[in-house]
Amino acid sequence: MEILAFGVQADEQPLIEGAFAGRAEVRCLDVFLNEDTAPIAAGHEIVSSSVNADLGASVLEILSAGGTRMVAQRSTGFNNIDLETAERLGLTVARVSSYSPYSVAEFAWALALAVDRRVVRASNRTRDFDFRLQGLMGRDLHGRTAGVLGTGRIGAAFARIAHGFGMRLLGWDVTENPACRELGMTYVPKDELLAESDLLTLHVPLMPGTRHLIDAAALKAMRDDAILVNTSRGGLVDTAALVGELRAGRFTGVGLDVYEAEAGLFFLDKSLTAVEDDTLARLVTFPNVLVTSHQAYYTEDAVGQIVDATVGNVLDYRAGRRSENVLVPRS
């Protein structure tokens, strides 16, 4: 049985092939799974997808018609999967329920520090042998307030780092995390957190109830000199509203590793083509904005754990076992 893995980055391929070695045959493709590429999977019982795959109803229909019975997604989030259609078609769907929270938390801090201390601008200047300090002044984060929206494993890891910086901690979540409480975090309503945070970081999943969690009203409630970091899902932020606030000169810095319309852009080389997304094109022009291509999870440790969990999901499917990673069980 050959497993077909879509959206495999060059760095990932040896990890995937090594993990499956001796267990199953796997063929890695660098193209992403969508309506155009789904027919490639014909004859493959098991397909593995990446975080930006399109697993809507039409794609699942194509996979099912081609003989696919199991989809193993190599990510935690699954907002891109039509689970109702998968269940109707009798497709087993599994994800990776958890991996190193430090990969994302540490990268969120990398973004926060980079925009606070104007690292990208400074680096660009020194490449031109311009060593002036004008416009590079940042702020100490020690003693300031970090607001953490979502205090699960990643949010808690971010909070521990913030605690090490000597920051005041505010949190918001549907369930309080005792580990964050032990750090001195105070849980407050979202509006209060927005109004008091010098640094706001997002670590909640994207669901219908969290889409545009940071909307126009939320952005206006934030401090003019706040730092906003999003390493979770792009749909949490109303990007058009964010651009409007940035045009008004607000916010010390914004670090985004995700973008709500990133599918078809992120993970691809678009350097020689015209990008038709006017919102993204405008966003990257602001000197206080840093956009990266959904790479927060991309460490040897985290990717290794994701791959191992994916192999486990495939082996469980073949053995008829069910784990916490299964979103739609085998029919």
Radius of gyration: 21 Å
Structural class of the secondary elements?
Answer: alpha/beta
How would you describe the shape?
Answer: globular
Poorly predicted residue ranges: none
Main pleated-sheet profile: 7 strands, parallel
By DSSP (H or I, 4+ residues per run), the number of helices equals 12
- How many E strands? 13
Q: Which CATH first-tier class of the largest domain would you pick?
A: Alpha Beta
Give the N-terminus to C-terminus distance in angstroms. 19 Å
Walk me through what this model shows.
Residues 110-296 form the D-isomer specific 2-hydroxyacid dehydrogenase NAD-binding domain. This is D-lactate dehydrogenase. GO terms for molecular function: D-lactate dehydrogenase (NAD+) activity. 34% of the residues lie in helices and 15% in strands. It is globular, with a radius of gyration of 21 Å. With 331 residues, the protein is α/β, with parallel strands linked by helices. It folds into 2 domains: 2-99 and 299-328, Rossmann fold (3-Layer(aba) Sandwich); 101-291, NAD(P)-binding Rossmann-like Domain (Rossmann fold), CATH 3.40.50.720. α1 runs parallel beside α12 (300-319). It has a 7-stranded parallel sheet, with helices on both faces. Strands 2-1-3-4-5-13 form a 6-stranded mixed sheet. The chain has helices at 13-20, 57-65, 83-89, 101-116, 119-127, 153-164, 178-182, 190-196, 216-221, 239-247, 278-283, 300-319; strands spanning 2-5, 25-28, 46-49, 70-73, 92-94, 145-149, 168-172, 186-187, 199-202, 227-230, 253-256, 289-291, 326-328.
